[in-house]
Amino acid sequence: MAIWLTENSKIIVQGMTGGEGTKHTRRMLASGARVVGGVNARKAGTTHEGLPVFGTVKEAMEQTGADVSVAFVPPAFTKDAVKEAIDAEIPLCVVITEGVPVHDSTEFWAYAIAKGNKTRIIGPNCPGIASPGASNAGIIPADITTAGRIGLVSKSGTLTYQLMYELRDFGFSTAVGIGGDPVIGTTHIDALQAFQDDPGTDAIVMIGEIGGDAEERAAAYIEQHVTKPVVAYVAGFTAPEGKTMGHAGAIVSGSAGTAQAKKEALEKVGVRVGKTPSETARLMREIMQSR
Predict the structure, then answer these.
(1) Residues 24, 48, 188, 247: which is the catalytic one?
(2) Residues making up the binding site
């Protein structure tokens, strides 16, 4: 089992004909993902990488049966691309683009809600979603782990890859990189709920980072709704006080949003928190070995 992305998922790539779109379309195809076409209004009717290019997401869905879109679209055009995917009611839209204005992200997130939440948005500024052995939508390397029964949700792209690699001997049902921007479509809580409901997931790794209160809200959700074991890592334990670090969402104000405050909130509800990614992997390894 997996969440949101399975071996039956049919993927289209918005911006497939661009440099990044081309490179990662090739990588997704090489991983075995079912990429069925691309979208570029100016190149509709042509082929690229052996795949048809359509003028709109709606047309691509009608012609191919696609149910996932991956967007490699420049920041200035991302809002319109995501709204087009929402209008087409594609079930999943994975927005890889970095540097999307927060106002634009807020606008397309609200647009999805107004349209009845028929499209799940992952991102922006994220590595995407991978269900090892089944499908891969985004830029997560396909060969760093195996299929298994751990679920992973992460704000950080590179830490997603590290935990997937360190726990490759157990493997993953699905790994979701939700992105580190202040406004994102899918949250830790959304993924925690899906993993809790997924019979193919036995335990969950959650990666957060300094700034905001997403991890504290996730802790409250875990206390009330999650019965599967969760281990966590919060990036930023060594961040200098008062300095903005990394992602746009990693802003610390006073004691709120610090790694220590997040660690304490998570541990209070029974989540084991590693001080390093490798320690986090060790904690999960202990859980999986005891099952």
Answers:
(1) 247
(2) 17-20, 43, 96-98, 161
95 and 201 in one domain?
no
Q: Is the pLDDT of residue 87 over 60?
A: yes
247 is known as an active-site residue: yes
Are 204 and 249 contained in the same domain?
yes
Q: Please state the residue numbers annotated as binding site for CoA.
A: 17-20, 43, 96-98
The 10s digit of each residue's pLDDT in 39-67 is 999 999 999 999 999 999 999 999 999 99
Q: Is the pTM of this model over 0.85?
A: yes
Query: Is residue 114 situated within a structural domain?
Result: yes
The percent of residues above 90 in pLDDT, for the chain, comes to: 88
Print the domain residue range for 262: 144-289
Annotated binding residues for substrate, as ranges? 161
Q: What is the dihedral of CA 244, 247, 248, 252, to 10 degrees?
A: -40
CA separation for the pair 170, 283 (Å, rounded) = 13
Same domain, 234 and 172: yes
Of 267, 202, 253, nearest to 228 by C-alpha is 202
Contact at 8 Å (CB) between 91 and 119? yes
E-strand ranges in the chain read 10-14, 34-39, 47-48, 51-54, 68-71, 92-95, 120-122, 128-131, 135-138, 147-154, 172-177, 203-209, 230-235, 272-274
